[in-house]
Amino acid sequence: MDKSQQIKTKRRFPMNLYNKLEEKLKNKSEDTQETVEEIKTAETKTEEVNLIKCPKCGKMVDRTRVVKKKYVCYECGGYFRIKTNNRIRMVADPKSFEPWFEDMEVSNPLEYEGYEEKLAAAREKTGLKEAVTVGRCKVYGNDIVLGVCDSRFMMASMGHVVGEKITKAIERATELRLPVFMFCCSGGARMQEGIVSLMQMAKTSSAIKKHGDEGLLYCSILTDPTTGGVTASFAMLGDVIMAEPGALIGFAGPRVIKQTIGQELPEGFQTSEFLVEHGFVDGIVLRENLKKTIHFLIKSHRGTGKKTYADFCDESNFHFELSEDLKEQSWYSKPRSAWEKVKAVRQVERPSATDYMEHIFDIFVEAHGDRGFSDDKALIGGIGFIGGQPMTVIADLKGKDIKECQERNFGMPLPEGYRKALRLMKQAEKFNRPIISFVNTSGAFCGIEAEERGQGEAIARNLLEMSGLKVPVLCILIGEGGSGGALATAVGNEVWMMENATYSILSPEGFASILWKDSNRAQEASEVMNITAQDLKRLGVIERIIPEFGGADKKTTEAIAGYMKEHIKEFLEKYNGKSGEQIAAERYERFRKF
Description:
Number of strands: 19
Helix content: 25-40%
Strand content: 15-25%
Number of helices: 24
Distance between the termini: 65 Å
Shape: elongated
Largest sheet: 8 strands, mixed
Oligomer: single chain
């Protein structure tokens, strides 16, 4: 924290008095003297304390309480910028951090006047050798390589020593086969080093590419501020990108934009939350959860070459048994017509993918965004665990009420939804995670924005890439499966359907309109289209029909999920010991026969 923001006063001091005085001074109130007298009286009754000014709300707050909250303001939740040592203490096991490359030679490549003096002053002020500290540490006993940028050192700008330290740390992490976690913070490239600073962007990015090619995890955590050349290089190249709340993140900062082209940025622009909404960051991480989040990411991205998918827990975790009230019912529902099934799967009350996931997975953590445009809420994805086995999970979501249905676009993905799914599936391949895809969409969204952003290309790209994935892919149709929009996440080694689900080339209304020029004949069309699970099992399009125990609703959700969970293990066991090439070849042959 900046010492200029600290005020010596009294412990347990009623700080609201200082805030009250500040407000009166701001409003030019005439009774400020009364508040000053209150402060003097309070000062004589209390012990000594440190006050610091919150950078977000501007209030004077008790430094001790702020430190206990991991340098977060207890008044507004605003995040203070923190020193390197404090950051390391937050995430590393005690006394486990081993710094690397601390004695690198510093030079002035452009012989910029006064640069050496500026560096010396920064070293004196911060106690650091440079703007980034790198090294090895443990997180709950797991070895990682950790990097921390510190804004106190020339605004954590990236000069050649910063770039070299980061590059050497990543290279050593590659040799040691360790994951890398980088806390990013920067004002951008270091102006005093000019083009030499610019070259660090390419250098660090190249090292990350080689690290990733070895199937190793690189994560970046964006803190306030992360801008310029750092944003355009190592900060935005994580397999997983997280950000602290309220952090300023952008290529060109607000001041640069205003001075260059005269634009005033709107409120909330270039914040962590803005970047999540626009698809560039996987999620916001609170400081109180940082260490646990890093531990979770280590566990879920181990990326071993050993092709073992189902040796992760004992059989008891997969024992499936019906509840007492369902035991007397038939596993399968009473026969329904195709049209009855169409109407049933369109009901907003029908259980969604997340309802089943709650019972299938021990934990599910959602990731966000396509890293290109936005975070499509019609299609979610993330990592789920069954026992010790991490899996990548993809799911269409329609919504539970009219507000959520509108937010999720009624389960009709846009191109960015399919690109998000593909990003997560390629990540699953890199880290050897099986993929479970829950399909429930009437189709891809058709509209101006979808066409402008390449809906057809996005679906085609998914079909191309999914066909060659070198991990097992299981696709489960739980409701509607409409056209290419459904197929875009349903290119699996096996495809299952719930007994009342439907899967078709397009909606019955569309079929009737195109072939018979009369959409009112939709019910008749549904009966001739062969769209039910029973039809598709007979045609060899699906491998398994999942019973609904009388019909999918709140009462049967857990039983249906239990059936799925038990058979997911059976599915994965088939791929134990198989190479990625064999897995992809089997998927190719599955679709080749149609």
